[in-house]
């Protein structure tokens, strides 16, 4: 594979056949295949056999992003608006004073009691089923630990398509298989989830709100339909990613509690700052116990100083969630409306991003770059979904929307209107 003799997509011989050719024990070949799967070099699809992956799982999708030239407006990055993030000076100073009074030493609990209480109260208010609280170094860290707690190499995970590149990278990096699930403005389509579950998906990852890249949000009716479907598959692991908490004005419609094992993950990144590296999780007791047990053998815990700083942010009212959601919503809604008025299909129900289906991503991205706008190619976010581009509105002003909409319409003029993203 490294030499290119087995190019990406090549079907590998059955293990017993290869063992016979090499004159070795079949268990030796099985161990080699398992190691290759765990390292993300090959992927196995049941009876259809094993193939060389299209690219190493250690190569992040972010590597597909372009270098933005000086003077070009950058709408490709998914960062929040820095002007809407709170200052960390006061919260970190308060956390340091609290630490000085009672330093955290080995043997302390992994979650600060006040953080757990505040997080649980917030979850209760949103109708999330009861469960213990854990803290991880961001949403992706939590999702990885949950998947590792229940799945084995070769298991299949249903993932939104188009969806978050981090999740699409993480699943194969763990030696797991991605089963793409089509989405619409209300989140994962029920028929697509049903097909993935019928195909043997052991886990399902759902973005509750502010889905990246489409802006989808799971509505009340879709949540009822998904819960009814999941109730028929109680052994499926459900992971809900609510990273949009704090920056959206749409209500949460949680899915957890209908399967034996479930978690809901909430990151502080978008509302309070990516460098905090903190997410809170709740879920069933078995999953949370496994997660915390494995965490003890690695990092041990997320810094109590960071946890105390988040407590200060939550209790001080440093972020006006309503105002933040309104600010993002005004820019996003203005762009979606302007694009639709120009005959361009656009999707952005919540969050920081707008998704525009196009015929040819490369052409559209290149044309927009020449016009002074850098956008993210859809290849970063999709498996089987139709091409598209993602525009992040956090760096955009409402005054810039008409010019951007005209540029997108001109760049995507070749048959873009009416293209579906599912």
From TrEMBL:
Keyword match Oxidoreductase: no
Entry-linked SUPFAM superfamilies: PLP-dependent transferases (SSF53383), Winged helix' DNA-binding domain (SSF46785)
Keywords from the named record: DNA-binding, Pyridoxal phosphate, Transcription, Transcription regulation
InterPro entries linked: Aminotransferase_I/II_large (IPR004839), HTH_trans_reg/aminotransferase (IPR051446), PyrdxlP-dep_Trfase (IPR015424), PyrdxlP-dep_Trfase_major (IPR015421), Tscrpt_reg_HTH_GntR (IPR000524), WH-like_DNA-bd_sf (IPR036388), WH_DNA-bd_sf (IPR036390)
Listed SMART domains: HTH_GNTR
CDD domains: AAT_like
Entry keyword annotation includes ATP-binding: no
Domain HTH gntR-type span(s) in chain numbering: 1-55
Family: In the C-terminal section; belongs to the class-I pyridoxal-phosphate-dependent aminotransferase family.
The protein, known as: DNA-binding transcriptional MocR family regulator
Lineage: Bacteria, Bacillati, Actinomycetota, Actinomycetes, Kitasatosporales
């Amino acid at each position: 594979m490294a030499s290119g003799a087995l190019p990406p997509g090549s079907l590998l011989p059955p293990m017993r056949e290869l063992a016979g050719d090499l004159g070795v024990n079949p268990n030796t070949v099985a161990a080699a295949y398992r190691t290759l799967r765990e390292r993300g070099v090959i992927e196995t699809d049941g009876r259809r056999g094993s193939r060389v992956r299209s690219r190493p799982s250690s190569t992040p999708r972010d590597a597909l992003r372009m270098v933005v030239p000086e003077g070009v407006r950058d709408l490709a990055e998914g960062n929040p608006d820095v002007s809407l993030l709170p200052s960390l000076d006061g919260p970190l100073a308060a956390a340091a004073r609290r630490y000085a009074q009672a330093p955290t030493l080995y043997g302390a609990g992994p979650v600060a009691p006040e953080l757990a209480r505040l997080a649980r109260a917030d979850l209760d208010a949103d109708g999330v089923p009861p469960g213990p609280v854990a803290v991880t170094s961001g949403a992706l860290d939590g999702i990885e630990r949950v998947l590792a707690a229940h799945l084995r190499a070769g298991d299949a995970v249903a993932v939104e398509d188009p969806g978050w590149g981090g999740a699409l990278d993480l699943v194969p990096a763990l030696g797991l298989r991605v089963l793409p699930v089509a989405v619409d403005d209300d989140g994962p389509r029920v028929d697509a989830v049903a097909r993935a579950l019928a195909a043997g998906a052991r886990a399902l990852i759902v973005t509750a709100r502010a889905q990246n890249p489409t802006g989808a949000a799971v509505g009340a009716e879709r949540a009822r339909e998904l819960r009814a479907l999941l109730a028929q598959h109680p052994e499926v692991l459900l992971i809900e990613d609510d990273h949009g908490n704090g920056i959206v004005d749409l209500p949460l419609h949680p899915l957890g509690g209908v399967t034996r094992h479930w978690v809901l993950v909430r990151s502080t990144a978008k509302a309070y700052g990516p460098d905090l590296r903190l997410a809170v999780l709740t879920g069933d007791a078995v999953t949370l116990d496994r997660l915390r047990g494995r965490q003890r053998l690695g990092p041990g815990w997320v810094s109590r100083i960071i946890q105390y700083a988040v407590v200060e942010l939550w209790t001080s009212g440093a972020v006006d969630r309503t105002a933040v959601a309104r600010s993002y919503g005004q820019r996003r809604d203005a762009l979606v409306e302007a694009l639709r008025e120009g005959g361009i299909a656009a999707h952005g129900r919540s969050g920081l991003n707008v998704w525009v289906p196009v015929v040819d991503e490369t052409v559209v991205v290149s044309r927009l770059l020449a016009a002074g706008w850098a956008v993210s190619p859809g290849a970063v976010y999709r498996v089987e979904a139709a091409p598209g581009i993602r525009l992040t509105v956090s760096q955009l002003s409402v005054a810039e929307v008409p010019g951007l909409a005209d540029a997108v319409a001109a760049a995507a003029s070749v048959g873009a209107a009416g293209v579906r993203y599912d």
